[in-house]
Amino acid sequence: MTRTLFSAHGLGWRQRLVFCAAAVMFVAAAGVTEAKTYELRPSPATVHRSFFDASLKPVLTIDSGDIVRLWTATGNPRYFESLGVPKEKIPPELYAAFEGVAGANREDHTLTGPIAVRGAEAGDTVEIRIRSIDLWLPIAGMGIRAGRGSLPEDFPYSRDRVFFFDPAKKQIEFAPGVVVPARPFWGVIAVAPPPSMGRVPSGPPNVFGGNMDNHDLQPGTSLYLPVHTPGALISIGDGHAVQGDGEVGMSAVETSLQGEIQVVLHKGMHTNWPRAETPTHYMTIGLDPDLNQAAKIATREMLNFIVENKHMSRDDALMLMSAAMDLHVTQIVDGTKGVHAMLPKSVFRQ
Length: 350
Prior knowledge:
The chain is of the alpha+beta class. Helix content is about 15%, strand content about 35%. Strands 1, 5, 7, 8, 14, 16, 17, 18, 19 and 20 form a 10-stranded mixed sheet that branches. Helix 4 packs across helix 5 (about 315-325). The longest helix is centred in the last third of the chain and has 20 residues, at about 290-310. The model is unreliable at about 1-30 (pLDDT under 50).
């Protein structure tokens, strides 16, 4: 029988977490291993753009438990120049990251990586602990595209905007007196797809994660992704300063971010779809071109989690979900639509 994320090797989610933590502490105390911290910045040698591919060579290889401080670049300088932004107002870091890139597309999916995890194999799961995310560069782009997005019939034209902001203030001014607090997150967090899929575009999310555009993947959250190829090959990018559920205009406030992740490999822990755990909620994620099917996947994944880890019957679990679980429309504009289910941890008192 296929085991889900939170019950691999016969252990419940909490039991496995305690076991793994104890093992890490024991090994560290014995002086056998120690987590290393790496830095990874965007450059022509450390990014790939708008695709995933299991044949990509890693730009960094780490061990389970290691920490990566990474920067992601969003905003081709030629894009900003085409909108009339003087070169002196475009951060030099963008010119460095986009060296050699032709054209004036914004190139939101400039992805830092891939990062290989030693020992990761198909059938395992990688846990990506999001330790921090912050605004990096003080410039962002946003746009609508003719005939696309959630209201294509209402917007038969395209429009782009440039935002300048102070990263320390963490807010975006849309108009005088209209200010949106920043809530930065990476729209794309992925492992490599199964090798049988070949090279796939990064626009539609899938079983490997990818362009999920999930603004609830905030610091303190662990994202779990199924491994499909040796090394897992993690790629991260598509920085967003802020985005609402749905991403109805087809674009967030797209910007460059900096942050820190810790990657933990769970050997033999099988997962079918991306899942996550925030400080306050369990999260399951459904992805499908049909929004109804995406909702079903997210709901069924949460049902399986409750039954296997909280030892409730399927009937009682479904009733609990109807009473306490929220379904969020993650995004509806990437071809493959997303729904994520959020169940408060506080309903479980033991």
